[in-house]
Design goal:
Helix content is 43%, strand content 13%. By secondary structure, the protein is α/β, with parallel strands linked by helices. The chain folds into two domains: 143 residues, Rossmann fold, CATH 3.40.50; 156 residues, Rossmann fold (3-Layer(aba) Sandwich), CATH 3.40.50.1370. The structure holds phosphoric acid mono(formamide)ester and norvaline.
Length: 318
């Protein structure tokens, strides 16, 4: 255990005090070491006490998993969380980010921020003198991707060469899956209706980071995309902030539902993932979500373990 801990610390010590704004902020070796630490924490083989450190949560969008898993992760590390909801702080009345970030840096030790634009998140990171974590923006959801790949690693025992097919909107979740997957050697296919494909700049970024010859590809045909898939992943068709498009998208995406038919085309070992919350009967059927291939609730649990590991690293607990 001592040499394993030394390996983890030597890979991750350079990430102490660093921001986690994009999946690309961690490299391949760092992600794998973070997974080792996550597993140690998950199975009670390691205890890390950071001593009364404080995480500030700034969430301008709803959240169950991210909010609660960060709070519980911090509590398990001996720290505390303060909820800096913009509706009850001066943020909601227009106090500039550059002032807010500098003030909060004098009270807190780390900030987790959920907001709309990536530029706003980057503005916080520019002015804060403490680490900033992306808890979801319109562009990326990097903490989610860490939990997703930890779940896949636990299930298959490896990541290199795994075929992951994401069926649905080319959104924040798809973007982080592509970037993180590319660095881990996972073949990531993103299958969306025409006009809803992932951002081409993110696709190019993922391709430029790809390792072990893995393929990052875009496709519009779910029946084709799930062939040989060991992981089928989906997310809502209309993300937070796109509620007005819900009805329009429901029609356009109707052939992109994850159901038993797709599961039967995929590899026999296929697992089903969804970041949640799910809209049963839209992007996924009840049968697929609750069926024997589903690892969705383990995936949700793993948010806690990867984020506990991430906080421990950023706050110098190794
Ligand atoms: N998957 C996820 O981020 O869930 P929440 O929106 O509930 O945090
Ligand atoms: N794409 C979804 C993910 C929710 C966790 C959204 O941004 O609303």
């Amino acid at each position: 255990m001592a040499s394993a801990n030394f390996g983890i610390a030597s890979e991750l010590s350079s990430f102490c005090k660093r921001d986690f704004l994009s999946s690309s902020d961690l490299n391949h070796n760092q992600i794998l070491s973070l997974f080792e630490l996550s597993k140690q924490l998950k199975y009670g083989n390691r205890r890390i006490d950071l001593g009364n450190r404080v995480l500030g949560l700034i969430f301008t969008k709803a959240s169950t998993r991210t909010r609660v898993s960060f709070q519980v992760a911090m509590a398990r590390l001996g720290g505390q969380t303060v909820d800096l909801n913009p509706q009850v702080t001066q943020l909601g009345r227009g106090e500039p980010i550059k002032d807010t970030a500098r003030v909060l840096s004098r009270y807190c030790d780390v900030l987790a921020i959920r907001t709309f634009s990536q530029a706003e998140l980057e503005e916080y990171a520019k002015w804060a003198t403490i680490p900033v974590i992306n808890a979801l923006t319109d562009l990326e959801h990097p903490c989610q991707a860490l939990a997703d790949y930890l779940t896949i690693l636990e299930k298959f025992g490896h990541l290199k060469g795994i075929n992951l097919s994401y069926i649905g909107d080319g959104n924040n979740v798809a973007n982080s899956l592509m970037i993180c997957g590319a660095m881990l050697g996972v073949n990531v296919r993103i299958c969306s209706p025409k006009g809803f494909e992932a951002d081409s700049k993110i696709v190019d970024k993922a391709k430029s980071l790809s390792r072990f010859g893995c393929e990052i590809s875009i496709n519009n045909d779910p029946l084709e995309a799930v062939k040989k898939a060991q992981v089928i992943y989906t997310d809502v068709w209309a993300s937070m902030g796109q509620e007005k498009e819900q009805l329009k998208r429901k029609k356009i995406f109707q052939n992109h539902i994850v159901d038993q038919k797709l599961i039967e085309i995929a590899d026999k070992s296929v697992i089903i993932l969804h970041c949640l919350p799910a809209h049963r009967g839209e992007e996924i059927t009840e049968e697929a979500l609750e069926g024997k291939n589903s690892c969705i609730f383990t995936q949700a649990e793993n948010r806690l373990h990867v984020q506990q590991a991430l906080l421990a690293v950023q706050l110098g607990g190794l």
